[in-house]
Amino acid sequence: MHTLEQVHTFSQLKVISDPRRLAILKQLMDAPATLTQLGKALGEHPAWVRHHLKLLEQAGLVELSEVKISGGFIEKYYQSKAHAYLFQELVLPEKPGKRTVVLSGSHDLALEMLAHLSGGDLYIFTNPVGSLDGLVALRQGLCLAAGCHLYDTNSGDFNSPYVRHFFPDKKMVLLTLAHREQGWMVSPGNPLKISGLEDLTRQDLRFINRNRGSGTRLWLDEKLSRIGVSPEHVPGYSDEVYTHTAVAVAIHQGQAQIGLGIRAAAASHHLGFIPLFQERYDLVIPQEHLTQKQLAPMFDAFYSGEFRHQVEGLGGYDVSHLGDQIIL
């Protein structure tokens, strides 16, 4: 089985930022090799290779795999410790006494509001990458929590089946932020008389889509498949944006005539809105994070009456279940 490992320290990143060492590492990912073999493959003297190979070895990226004696000479074979490496690192601000928190996952206006209201000793950043990629980032330790609204058609439940799949070995909590309303965003007054999913194939309309892996996109793709509509027959299907706000802006500026998103985003740009369904939006968070004292300012803001009131004011949010917990 081929192994893929994440490069997770700046010292490793520094070593492989040199294109010469990266070239050696790529050779050793394919197969073990000696200094002489690497020199021939790269057109360099073995002494040159030895210098860079030692740095890779010290960084924990390559290792000695075998020693052979041939014709009275000792041949040392080196190999990469993994068949492939993933380079992914967050660079965050640092200040004594302050902690930086990243909330990844699905875009949400209330989540952005929470980041703004949370004070104290916290820097809070939101990273709207979509529900699925948010869970991936949480699994990789690249965020504290992930916003999620993934509907499972088999169970009829939101988020739980996906979280169990990503975290079979860890206690996780689904902390409900709200139930929010999704639907079609259209021009004010709906002058093009848009009524449903079938309208997406109309040639007088251009659709603005969400990014792959977002809960909104997954819902749309499932519905299109169910009624037998191919994405290639939807004008604008390949036009992707990462947030509900970006969908609203595209329609407001006339770049598209229809998009799928939350009512609050439509209201913020004075667009028309055709409601389709309600969904539960949860913060997925490891259970041990709930009791960390450093995160108290964020949770104080989350449970405050001010936050609840402001979320209700966005439009399309039902906060009656805000704070409910599902422990998995």
Polypeptide structure, described:
With 328 residues, this protein is of the alpha/beta class. The chain has two domains: 4-87, Winged helix-like DNA-binding domain superfamily/Winged helix DNA-binding domain (Arc Repressor Mutant, subunit A), CATH 1.10.10; 99-327, D-Maltodextrin-Binding Protein, domain 2 (3-Layer(aba) Sandwich). 33% of the residues lie in helices and 28% in strands. It is built from twelve helices and 16 strands. Strands 5, 6, 7, 10, 11, 12, 13, 14, 15 and 16 form a ten-stranded mixed sheet that branches. Strands 1-4 form a two-stranded parallel sheet. β5 (99-105), α5 (109-117) and β6 form a beta-alpha-beta unit. The longest helix has 13 residues, at 46-58. It is globular, with a radius of gyration of 25 Å.
Number of domain modules: 2
Quick one: CATH class of the largest domain?
Alpha Beta
Shape field: globular
Round the mean pLDDT to the nearest integer and report it: 92
DSSP, total strands: 16
- State the secondary-structure class: alpha/beta
How does CATH name the architecture of the largest domain?
A: 3-Layer(aba) Sandwich
Amount of beta strand: 25-35%
CATH topological fold name of the largest domain: D-Maltodextrin-Binding Protein, domain 2
Element-by-element helix/strand order: EHHHHEEEEHEHEEEHEEHEHEHEHHEE
Task: Kindly provide the radius of gyration, computed on alpha-carbon positions and rounded to a whole number of angstroms.
Answer: 25 Å
Residues in helices, as a percent range = 25-40%
Low-confidence stretches: none
User: How many helices does DSSP assign?
Assistant: 12
Largest sheet: 10 strands, mixed
C-alpha termini separation: 30 Å
